Amino acid sequence: MPPIGIFGGTFDPIHFGHLRLAEEMAAALGLSRVLFMPAGQPPHREAPRIAAAHRLEMVRRAIAENPLFAVDAREVQRAQPSYTVESLTALRDELGPDQPLWLLLGADAFLGLASWHHWQRLFGLANIAVVTRPGAQLLQPDAMQEPLKSEVLNRQVADHTAAGPAGSVWFQHMTPLEISATAIRDILGQQGSVRYLLPDTVLNYIYEHQLYLQT
Ligand code: ATP
Prior knowledge:
single chain; alpha/beta; Rossmann fold
């Protein structure tokens, strides 16, 4: 059964760093699908700049041409703060215990994992693939802090095909793209150009709805 990837984020807005991450991880891990799961009100960080409906629509437009990519809107459809552990539990119930799942995380997100709600339960629900990101610390367990370090040392696999439905950690290098949504919002706020940092379909949507144009 080919594995499925789950890629969460605020996507405020979605950009080529996100899309390239999903593309490279799909190839590296042999994923049959990547589910983009925009966060509703993320509990562990400040509120996204714009309404969830806009972030969702930009994700939809960005992935429209890629048959491997799909959107999972469950978190933006919730009124309450959404926790990854709850979304993964629901997904696991839908897909059954045998479906291999890979939660895709950039290195910066992974290094903050120990602050997430019931984070250790995530390993019972999915494998975790951690992807390099410019500016984030190198992915070496020795450089990590406890309690994350012990989980990595226990769970890291040398071959991702040896992973089961859940419980393994895999580190993957991706083409470095130093793009962040924060920088995109800042440039737009100063009336600068963000062309070639995100898809034109997303850029058109941003201008159509006058998003991020005030600082
Ligand atoms: P912000 O600047 O608002 O924090 P962001 O660009 O980091 O946003 P998020 O939606 O917070 O985007 O990120 C979702 C996921 O994508 C996270 O796991 C993050 O580490 C990863 N990610 C985002 N941009 C990149 C990139 N350029 N290279 C690798 N991973 C990335």
